[in-house]
Every structure is written in C-alpha cells, then in structure tokens.
Amino acid sequence: MVETAKVGSLGQPVKTVLNMPAAPGGAAPKLLSEVGAFQELAALTPAAGLMPYDINVSFWSDGAAKHRWIGLPVGGKLGFSAEGEWSFPPGTVFVKNFELPADQVGSGRSRPLIETRVLVCGADGGVAGASYKWRDDGSDADLVSEPIVAPVGGGGTNARNWYFPGRDDCRVCHTPAAGGVLGVKTRQINRSLGDAGENQLVKWNRLGLFKDEIGDIERFAKLRPAADFSATVEDRARSYLDVNCANCHRPGGVAGNFDARFDTPLGRQNLIDGPVLIDLGIDRARVIAPRDVWRSIALARVETSDLTRMPPLAHEQVDREGAGVLRAWIESLPGVEVLEPPSMQPKGGEFRGAVRVVLRHRDAGATIRYTLDGSAPGKSSAVYQGPLEIKGPVTVRARAYKEGVTRSVVVQETFVVND
C-alpha cells in the first residue's frame, strides 16, 4: 500500500492510503473503487491525500480532456529542478482521468469518463502504473491487464475506438531516461490552476512541498500549447515535440538522433536538418527539413496512423492541431524554396482496360519527369507532356523540377490492367 499525505491549511499532513503496489510486479486492485483514489467514486471526490494540478501542454490522447491529482508520501518532499526532471519520493502517486465530450461517447454511457490511470513511484526510482476502463454505466472501472482497443463512441460520425494501455505499456512511455514521471516538471507546472488561480509553482512552494526554496519563477521556462498564438510558432512546435517525443528522444533514450527536450537549446537538439534512422523511403529525409514538409520525417510520423506513427502508443487518431503547428514551423524556417510533389490521377489499383494517367502541378513553371520502370525519376527522365496510356501492369513514379528550387519528393502509383 502507498501512504500519501495532503498538506492542509496549517501545513499539517493528512494521512490517506492508496491500495497500489509500489513495484511493477505487484498486484493492482481489480477495480478502481478498490484503489482508494476517490472517497466517492460516483462524485469523483478525490481522496484526502490527493491534490489537483494541471499542466501547460498535454500528451496527445485523441482529444480527451484530462483531470490530474498528485499525492505525496507522509513527510515526502519534491526535488525541484529549474530544468530537466524533478525527483519524487517513493510512494508518490499520480491519478489521471480521461474523458471525451458527451456527444462523442455514445448514448449508452452515463458519463463521458473513459479511463483512469494510476502511477506510483517506487523505491528503486522506477514507476508502476495501472489503467482502469470505465464501465458504460459509470458504476466502476476495471483493471486493464493487457492492452486493448475498444469502441467508446456512438454510431455514425461519432464511432471511435480507444486504446487502453496494459500494465507493461506504462513503462514504454514512462522511461527511466525521462525519470519515470513525465508531466510534473517546471516547464509544465509553471502555470495557474484555473483562469485566475495562483501559479502552481508558487502554491506548491508556499505549501512546503519542495525540499528547497525554488526562487523567482519569472526566470523559469514554460511550454506553450499549439493554440496559444501569443507564443512563437517555434516555441509551440518545440513544446509539442517535448511533450509527445522527449520521453524517448533524449540522451539515454531510444536509438534516435535528436533530443526533443524543450530545455535543450534548439541548436543542440539535432532537429533541423538532423539525420534520420528511418527515412520512410523519402530522399534527403531529415527530422525537420527547413521549408520542406514532405522530407520532414517528424511531421510525417505525426500525421499518420499506420505502424510508423509517433507517438507509437495510446492514441488511435492523428493530432491535427499538433501536426498543424509543426507544419507551420517547418514552413517558417529559412531555406531554399521546395516544390510540392505533382498529383497523379487516378490512384493506383486494378483496372479492366487501359488507364489514362494524368500528372499535374500547381506551379506552371515546374517540369514533371516520370519513369515507368520502377526507377526514381531524375533530370534525364522523360518529361511529362500529356496523359499516359497505361495498358499493362506498371508503377508510375513522378517528380517535379524547377530551376533554383529544391526538387519535389517522388510520388508513385501502381496500376494493374486486366483485359
């Protein structure tokens, strides 16, 4: 069991107990009602030792709203750091509710709650987590042992699936390199709770939650959400990458070439023109290619829902707002103009007779070159003059060129013609 404490108005701890294991292999309660995170599950009244908090930028979770609480062990203090990760005493617990707008969860659900996650800091510096899937009638939530994808939306346009992580999934994102805890750090907590509330750093310092005085908060950085147009597009894009990528993409993390942490100066992040390990078959691919949204692999992997998607877990939909701010940042970077790829109609597939394939480019000054033998089009390849008559199985590959402008990436379609 995990003993946590709430700091009262006079600074006296109030003891409460969450029935969670403090090690990854421990058995978690089968029901959320048995965890002890809520005094009243129906009203979602948090246990006495849990304090609400919020962060500046949330990890993308298919547009869900999130409500968060933190609980410290009796006598435990937070280890503050202006940059980088904080330290948390063993037994620190985090609770997070996920909910979707009521019109997106279907008429069969009594409330918009989808999932509750609980995370506990262990004595070894690691974390143990558990996910609870809410029942349709809202009466309780059941422990998710193995990851599942289950429908949570209504029919028609509201139909949607939700990814419920298994217990081992927690450590995929909550990595040792990231300190196990992701959202609670200076650049995230440096904000007010509510529209006119006290800054959380100031409040937590006043309540004595830190080991040491933290100093003047005005000098501390803060992340900026994609929709905060008072911030630069660079700050918003780098904030997005920090939250959604930096848990793995950092020194000591995955075998990647860039450091996505916001605290790392841009010039040392290896983002802009940084080499990639997986190029997705794109020539001259980079993590972020200036002015080139087509060769920017970070953007390509955020904009897809296939197996190359990033982040790799815990979402089923593309974050259009996040992808949009990344795209805007890439387009704002200094560099040579880049041609967009030509369009090709119709799309590839099987046909019962000859097919007329039309290539187009929005820039009238661009030259389209193409191949029919599977090779990449080059400057010596055939120039497109008019519709191509395809009478047999062939892959059409095309690329746009223009003097003084970076060539486009290759587009291709495969056509199978059956007489």
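The record above closes out task 2.4. Task 2.5 opens with a second protein, given below.
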Amino acid sequence: MSSVIETIDVNVPVSRVYNQWTQFESFSQFMDGVERIDQTDDTHSHWVTNLGGVHREFDTRITEQTPDERVAWTSTDGTSHAGVVTFHRIDEATTRVTAQIDWQPEGVAEKVGALVGADDRQVKKDLSRFKEFIEARGTESGAWRGDVEAGS
C-alpha cells in the first residue's frame, strides 16, 4: 500500500474552499489525469482517469463528510484506494487543505512511480492547481453541504 500526504494554504475562506471541493465534476479542471467524474448520487461517483498512459474507470463512495471540515472516500471497485481531505480555517480568508491518499499501486510502472515519489509530486501539483482554480474564481461553482457520518 502506498500513501501520500500533502498540504497547501489557500487564500479563500474555508466554506468556499470546502464547497468547491464537493463539486467533484469540476476536478478535471485542476487534477491532471482526471478525464471525467460523474456524480451518480450524493455519496457515489464514477471516475475516468488517464495517468501516464494508464486508463482507469472506477467508482467511489463518500464514507464521511462534515461541512467545512472533511471529505473521506473509498473505492468500491477497480483500483483499491481511499483518502481524506481536511479543511482547516487559518483565519477569515485563509484555509489549509490537507489531502491524504492511500492506494495499492498496480503494475511495474505504478510501483516504481510510488517508490520514486511521482505520486507525491502529482498530488502536490493537483493541490497547487486547485489553489489557483479557487483563488482565481472568486466564488465556488456549487456546494453540497450534507453530512455523511462515518460508518453509515
């Protein structure tokens, strides 16, 4: 199992940052390799990715969600992965975003990539593009502020 933890400070209030993060269908605008995400209901989505020439399709389920605090998920098929993104209010206009992602690399290329830190760099770049995306927008593109309790 491989793991990445990356953090970035965003110059946007916590509720706006959180609201944008809940708009999974916008991820392709700032996450390299995400071709499309279709949200099928409040807690399920279908992902289509192409990273380093490796095409994948898989489904995820939100396992925990607390407005302005955290969103956690796990895969329900395909590649084994899970993660959590937390949102921390630094001050009225600044939010610290921390992403922790755990997954099982498949194949030689993914295993080597994990060993040399390619995944860490990718998550760091994606968070940086998210920062640019939300800071440039001035407002979120939507929001889902429902609670999903862990274990439900």
